[in-house]
Amino acid sequence: MKQQTPIRKVSLKRQAAIDAGTIPKYPVRQAIKKVSAKRAAILAENPNAFRKVPTKIREVKITDTDRAGLIKKLDSLFSKYIRNKYAVNGMVKCFTCPTVLPIARIQNGHFISRANMATRWLEENCRPQCPKCNGNHEVNTRPFENALIGEAYGSVEYLTDLSRRTTRISTSELIYLIEKYKT
């Protein structure tokens, strides 16, 4: 039988210690930090001197005076306005299916996406929808389009043309619309 030769040569004294179990066979090497004399003096006084201090992430608060706050407020008011406009005794019928839900559970559905500012707060573009239809509208716009054509012929073309225009709504226009839909 052929004896295996060790990869590393170990002294007899060390081999005896390994066999006795007093030292590990493969010692773990620890990284030695090289520290300058100046840094060592500072660390001797304050061990945490060079530790990184966690930085706080600045929280941005949306207020009613900045543009994002005005848009958020207008979205909320406009959604309530549309839902109340089509409500009968506190109940609203979904525009694309026969489901009838209370005002609080119905949503404001947009034919042209809310990302388009030209049609975002246009009453002709918005109708009440149940959460299921409003969620499916992202994938399939056909039911909303068919219901819109049945209601007013030519409105789909009008909204599509309007959505192709680049529009920036000013802060003063946002404030005007908020005042309009507050009632």
Major sheet: size, sense and barrel closure?
2 strands, antiparallel
Span of the ends, CA to CA: 98 Å
Rg over C-alpha atoms, rounded to the nearest angstrom: 35 Å
Lateral strand order in the biggest sheet:
1-2
Helix content: 25-40%
Unreliable stretches covering 5 or more consecutive residues: none
- Averaged pLDDT: 82
Residue share in β-strands: 5-15%
Q: Quick one: how many beta strands? A: 4
Summarize the helix and strand pattern as letters: HHHEEEEHHHH
Q: What global shape is seen?
A: elongated
Please give the count of helices: 7
What does this 3D model show about the protein?
With 183 residues, the protein is mostly helical. It has a domain at 67-181. It has helices at 12-20, 37-45, 67-85, 131-136, 142-151, 155-163, 171-181; strands at residues 91-93, 100-102, 107-110, 126-129. It has a two-stranded antiparallel sheet with strand order 1-2. The chain has a two-stranded antiparallel ribbon with strand order 3-4. A hairpin with a 6-residue loop joins strand 1 and strand 2 (100-102). Helix 3 (67-85) packs parallel to helix 7. It is elongated, with a radius of gyration of 35 Å. The mean pLDDT is 82.
How does the SSE layout of this entry go?
Layout lengths: L11 H9 L16 H9 L21 H19 L5 E3 L6 E3 L4 E4 L15 E4 L1 H6 L5 H10 L3 H9 L7 H11 L2
Antiparallel strand pairs: 1-2, 3-4
Helix pairs in contact: 3-7
